[in-house]
Predict the structure of DUF397 domain-containing protein.
Amino acid sequence: MADVTWEDPFCGEGNNCFRLGTDAAGNGYIAVNGQEDHPLTDSIAALRTLILSIKAGAADHLL
């Protein structure tokens, strides 16, 4: 696996913790805290779009 720089875990109350990461090749990663060896991987641009869409309410129907 690439050399990923992971951010601190993001944890909701009573939920799993997730981590976001990036590598020098321009990839973005999302993983469950403690399972960083099995991340979802895409470009940093795709990760940015996902986060901005979630912040804009695109996933509110899942809550």
